[in-house]
Amino acid sequence: MKTREKRAGQRSAVLLHIVACKACSAEWQSDPAIRVACSECKAEAGQPCRWQRPHGYGFHMRRDLLAMREGHLSACDALTWDGRHSRHAIAVTAPVQLALI
Ligand SMILES: [Zn+2]
Ligand SMILES: [Zn+2]
Questions:
Q1: Which domain holds residue 39?
Q2: Which ligand is located closest to the Cα atom of residue 49?
Q3: Count of beta carbons in the 10 Å neighbourhood of residue 24
Q4: What pLDDT does 3 receive?
Q5: C-alpha–C-alpha distance, residues 99 and 60, integer Å
Q6: Residues, beta carbon < 5 Å, ion ligand 1
Q7: What is the pTM of this model?
Q8: Which of 19, 50, 69, 96 is the most buried (most CB within 10 A)?
């Protein structure tokens, strides 16, 4: 199979997954809430929350509040109902130089 030509013609763009708030412009390399353990689902620090069914992205509210209390997570500047950032994972294009190293 000849895949070389195809690859050479491709623009190398690398997608990087970061976390951003939908309400304000805050962004994180990874979600700060993961630094604390979750009292809701007993996920340890560094582990994502365990949801009963596929839930998509997110952490339990109590975990967010604990992360905020411990100073890992700031309160959202935008007017959200509980002061938590409405975070979601997004893909951004990384600078191409990074991909070539
Ligand atoms: Zn949890
Ligand atoms: Zn926010």
A1: 35-93
A2: 1
A3: 16
A4: 53
A5: 34
A6: 38, 40-41, 43, 49, 60
A7: 0.72
A8: 19
Ligand nearest to the CA of 75: 2
51 C-alpha to center of ligand 1: Å? 7
H-type alpha helices, the chain: 4-9, 61-69, 96-100
Calculate what percentage of the chain has a pLDDT beyond 90: 50
Q: For the stretch 28-67, what's the b/e string if a residue is b when 16 or more beta carbons lie within 10 angstroms of its beta carbon?
A: beebbbbebebeebebeeeeebeeeeeeeebbbeebbbbb
Radius of gyration of the chain (CA): 18
Examine residue 48 and state whether it is found in any structural domain, yes or no. yes
- CA of 71 from ligand 1 middle (Å) equals 18
Instruction: Decide if 40 is inside a domain.
Output: yes
Of these ranges, 1-5, 60-64, 76-80, the one predicted with the greatest mean pLDDT is 60-64
